[in-house]
Design the sequence.
C-alpha cells in the first residue's frame, strides 16, 4: 500500500469513474483489455535529457526523500522478539542477488486534479524483462487514484494523478539522515544505480482507468524510465526479472517491498492493549518498519475468489505497494518470475466478498494483482514503446 492511504472511508463504495475525471482520455465504453496511457511525464524531443534532469532536480533532494520516504513515527525499524520470519524480513539478512538490483523505491508527486495540491508519496517497483529494456512495473494506485470520498492533501487520496516520478533501483535508505535539510541528491550509498531514473511514460489497466478505487481490482501499472547521465536502458544496468501472465495460482510466492507506515502496521507494538496487539498477535511477533530497507515475505499463496488475486499472510506495512510477487524464486540468485504486484490488504475474517477490501487499513493479509490479460496488455504497450 501507499504510505499516505490512511482513511477507510475513502474506499467505501464501488464507484466506477470515467478516466477523464483524473485528467486522462476516457477509454471505450465496452469492456476490453486496452490499457490507458497517462500523459507523458517527460516528453520526447530535443530537450528530453534536460527534462529528465529537471524531473529529478525539481523535488528529489535528500531532504525531500527523508520527508517522503521514511516513517512518520521517527523510530528506526525493529525486529520481532522471536526473530525475523517468513511474514517479513529485511532482504539484506536473507540474501542479495538480482532482486536486490531490480527491486527499488518509487518517489513521486501526485496532483490533486480538483484542488491543484501536490501530494508527494512513495511506493515499491521492479524492473522486468521488456523489448525496450526500460520497463518497470508497480501498482496502478501509485500513479492514479479516484476514490468516492475526496479527502485531498495530505492524504494523497481522492482525485489524483502522478505528475513527477523517479525510480531508485536497489534503494538503500540506511544512510538517509532523518530530518536532514540537505538539497543534495543522494549518492551511491542510497542510490547505487543512480537516482536519475526518471519516469517518462506510464500505463494503467483498462479496469483501473474506469474504477481507480480498488473496487474492481486490476491495480497494476507499467512505467518507462530513463537516465539523463547514462544512455543505457535500465535493464542493461540492473538486470531484469522475468515476467509472466495467467500463471497458475496456489503457488509458493516471494513478495518484496519497502514497508514504511507503522500506523497501519498490523504487527506494530503501538497497536496493542498492553498484552497483545489489538489485532490479537502475540508480542513476540511485533515489529516496526522505517521505509529504508527492502523486505521479503514468503509463503503459500491462495487465490481470492472475488478478484482472482493472490493472497499471502504478511507483516509488511504500507510503502510496499507495487512491490513484486515472484514464483519459482531462487533465493541464492535472487531470480524468479514476476506474476503480480502488491495492491491492498485483506482481512480473512470478512470472508470472500466484493467489499472484502474494506479492511485495507492494515491486514493481516496482502493481495497481489495477479497478472492476467489486462496486465499483459499494459506490459505489452509499455515494453514495445519508445521513451
Sequence:
Amino acid at each position: 500500500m501507499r504510505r499516505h492511504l490512511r482513511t477507510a472511508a475513502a474506499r467505501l463504495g464501488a464507484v466506477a469513474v470515467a478516466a477523464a475525471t483524473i485528467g486522462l482520455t476516457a477509454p471505450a465504453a465496452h469492456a476490453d483489455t486496452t490499457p490507458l496511457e497517462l500523459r507523458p511525464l517527460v516528453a520526447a524531443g530535443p530537450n528530453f535529457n534536460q527534462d529528465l534532469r529537471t524531473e529529478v532536480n525539481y523535488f528529489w533532494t535528500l531532504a525531500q526523500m527523508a520527508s517522503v520516504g521514511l516513517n512518520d513515527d521517527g523510530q528506526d525499524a525493529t525486529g520481532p522478539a522471536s526473530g525475523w520470519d517468513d511474514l517479513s524480513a529485511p532482504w539484506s539478512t536473507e540474501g542479495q542477488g538480482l532482486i536486490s538490483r531490480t527491486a527499488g523505491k518509487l518517489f513521486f508527486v501526485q496532483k490533486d486534479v480538483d484542488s491543484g495540491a501536490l501530494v508527494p508519496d512513495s511506493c515499491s517497483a521492479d524492473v522486468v524483462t521488456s523489448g525496450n529494456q526500460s520497463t518497470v512495473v508497480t501498482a496502478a494506485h501509485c500513479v492514479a487514484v479516484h476514490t468516492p470520498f475526496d479527502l485531498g492533501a495530505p492524504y494523497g487520496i481522492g482525485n489524483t494523478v502522478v505528475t513527477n516520478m523517479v525510480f531508485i533501483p536497489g534503494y538503500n535508505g540506511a544512510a538517509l539522515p532523518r530530518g536532514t535539510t540537505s538539497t543534495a541528491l543522494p549518492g551511491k550509498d542510497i542510490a547505487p544505480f543512480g537516482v536519475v531514473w526518471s519516469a517518462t511514460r506510464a500505463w494503467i489497466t483498462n479496469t483501473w482507468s474506469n474504477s481507480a478505487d480498488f473496487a474492481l481490482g486490476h491495480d497494476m501499472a507499467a512505467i518507462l524510465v530513463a537516465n539523463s547521465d547514462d544512455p543505457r536502458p535500465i535493464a542493461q544496468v540492473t538486470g531484469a526479472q522475468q515476467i509472466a501472465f495467467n500463471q497458475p495460482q496456489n503457488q509458493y510466492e516471494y513478495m518484496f517491498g519497502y514497508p514504511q507506515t507503522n500506523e497501519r502496521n498490523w504487527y506494530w507494538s503501538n497497536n496493542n492493549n498492553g498484552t497483545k496487539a489489538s489485532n490479537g498477535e502475540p508480542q513476540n511477533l511485533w515489529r516496526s518498519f522505517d521505509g529504508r530497507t527492502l523486505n521479503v515475505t514468503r509463503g503459500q499463496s491462495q487465490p481470492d475468489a472475488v478478484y482472482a488475486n493472490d493472497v499471502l499472510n504478511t507483516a509488511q506495512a504500507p510503502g510496499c505497494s507495487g512491490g513484486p510477487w515472484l514464483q519459482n524464486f531462487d533465493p541464492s540468485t535472487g531470480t524468479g518470475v514476476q506474476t503480480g504486484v502488491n495492491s491492498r490488504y485483506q482481512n480473512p475474517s470478512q470472508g470472500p466478498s466484493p467489499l472484502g477490501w474494506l479492511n485495507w487499513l492494515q491486514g493481516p493479509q496482502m493481495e497481489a494483482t495477479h497478472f492476467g490479460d489486462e496486465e499483459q496488455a499494459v506490459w505489452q504497450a509499455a515494453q514495445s514503446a519508445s521513451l
About this structure: The mean pLDDT is 85. Residues 105 and 124 are 5 Å apart (CA to CA). DSSP finds seven helices and 17 strands in the chain.
